[in-house]
Amino acid sequence: MGESSVVDQVRRFRIPLGLLTLFIFGQLLLKSQPQLQPNIPVEKWTTQIKAFLTSSAPTPIEHPIPKLMLAAHRKYKGMLTRQSTTLEEAVKEYERRYGRPPPRGFDDWFNFVKENGCKIVDEYDGMVKDFEPFWQLEGVEFRRRAEQVCTSFPGPTFFFSV
8-41: per-residue pLDDT in tens? Predict the structure, then answer.
């Protein structure tokens, strides 16, 4: 009889004891979470070590990221103001940069750019660098290699007449 009464008492207190344990554990978790301090100034940081070494006030340090962002923004705006507005200007800029006349169809491309409101017109440096090896090939050799690639891979074949 003594053993069953102990088991009954444990069963009666199991749910309240479990709830109490969960409550205490939850409180501990909530209090242990790091709290962010509001209004931490991030524009200027001060060196604490200089305050100990000299009697003057700590020297503010400006973080370089805002300066870099401003410089990049100014550079971008400057690049936008230098873009060609006419076909003649675009041709001149292309010839100046790359030492050769623009490719066939450049005028159609320029019309497309203007009709679609593109803001960057003269920046081809990456594309020209990527195509540089192909400029060394004669047209016949370029076509032969393109056909070789097309026949090497299964799938649909597309032919373009230029």
Answer: 777 777 888 888 888 887 777 777 655 555 555 5
Query: Is residue 147 assigned to a domain?
Result: yes
Distance, in Å, from the CA atom of 102 to the CA atom of 95, rounded to the nearest integer, reads 7
Rounded CA separation 145/138 (Å): 11
H helices of 33-123, in order, are 48-53, 64-81, 87-98, 106-115
- Determine the structural domain holding residue 111 and report its residue range: 82-152
Task: Give the number of domains in the chain.
Answer: 1
Strand partners, 46: 60
Classify residue 33: in a domain, yes or no: no
How far is residue 117's CA from residue 123's CA, in Å, rounded to a whole number?
15
Neighbours of 19 (CB within 10 A): 10
| Residue 159 belongs to a domain | no
